[in-house]
Amino acid sequence: MIANYHTHTWRCNHAEPGEEQYVRNAMKRGLQILGFSDHTPYPFPGGYTSSFRMRVAQLPGYCQCVQELQRKYAGKIQLEIGLEAEYYPKFFPELTAILKDTPVTYLILGQHFTGSEMDGVYSGSPTENPGVLKAYCSQAKDAMQTGLFTYFAHPDLIHFTGSDKVYREEMSGLFREAKSCGIPLEINLLGLSDGRHYPSRRFLELAAEEDCPVILGCDAHDPDSLLDTAMEARALAMAAEYGLTVLDTVPLRNIQTLLR
Ligand SMILES: [Zn+2]
Ligand SMILES: [Zn+2]
């Protein structure tokens, strides 16, 4: 790996503090690019507060922190300011309004809920309900069609335990859309090290069938995970088994340019 675009900070309430240590470890690892992509703030109505993302009021501090590190480590490592965002159709226009004219450069898609977390279901909960799978795929397709997302994080977060035929149909359609939008799919190294249901073999198989390029993402929630080269080796071996094209960098879709 020479780039990791998937890095969290303490602001999401479930990652370790010390942004600078993430940078130091990334350099120690030999990365040339480190992108911070903490869970985006989301402007929810009615005073609803999300437990796993920064507050809207924390966004300036997040950006400032990475900007200071950009200055401090200029010429040593390329640091980028991004966010991991769900596409919640009802609230997305307000989100982009908040992100416009900020230093946030890129978004990765992490569709953690279908509908939204206020009214929908967690994508990672096991379900036999084809309706949930279809909602996930349709929402993620709409997300990719906005043109604002640089890549699709853990696309196999959706934990469908029903018919394999239905899974194949829906997910193949989703990956075809990713391919036609030019959006790489992530092999998530946190899921791998944690023994989660993702990255899944059926995802790799279908991604290969649809000829989708993939990118490794650390999904770092603590600085030390950036030093875990064993996960990189395992993921690369899995990707090779399926003949997948692994990208080492991806061009960032600059949301500031796109939202202008
Ligand atoms: Zn995620
Ligand atoms: Zn993440």
Properties at a glance:
260 residues; 9 helices; globular; TIM Barrel; 5-stranded parallel β-sheet; alpha/beta
Structure report:
This protein is an alpha/beta fold and 260 residues long. The chain has one domain: TIM Barrel (Alpha-Beta Barrel), CATH 3.20.20. It is 38% helix and 13% strand. It has 9 helices and 8 strands. The strands form 2 sheets. The chain has a 5-stranded parallel sheet. A 3-stranded parallel sheet has the order 6-7-8. Helix 2 links the parallel strand 2 and strand 3. The mean pLDDT is 97. The structure holds zinc ion (ZN) (2 copies).
Q: In total, how many beta strands?
A: 8
The overall number of domains is: 1
- Helix/strand order, N-terminal first: EHEHEHEHEHEHHEHEH
CATH superfamily: Metal-dependent hydrolases
Care to give the gist of this entry?
The protein is of the alpha/beta class. The chain has 9 helices and 8 strands.
Please describe the topology of this protein.
Blueprint: E1 3-4, H1 19-29, E2 33-39, H2 59-72, E3 78-85, H3 92-99, E4 106-109, H4 130-145, E5 149-152, H5 164-181, E6 185-188, H6 189-194, H7 201-209, E7 214-217, H8 229-241, E8 246-247, H9 255-259
Parallel strand pairs: 1-2, 2-3, 3-4, 4-5, 6-7, 7-8
Helix pairs in contact: 4-5, 5-7
The structure holds zinc ion (ZN) (2 copies).
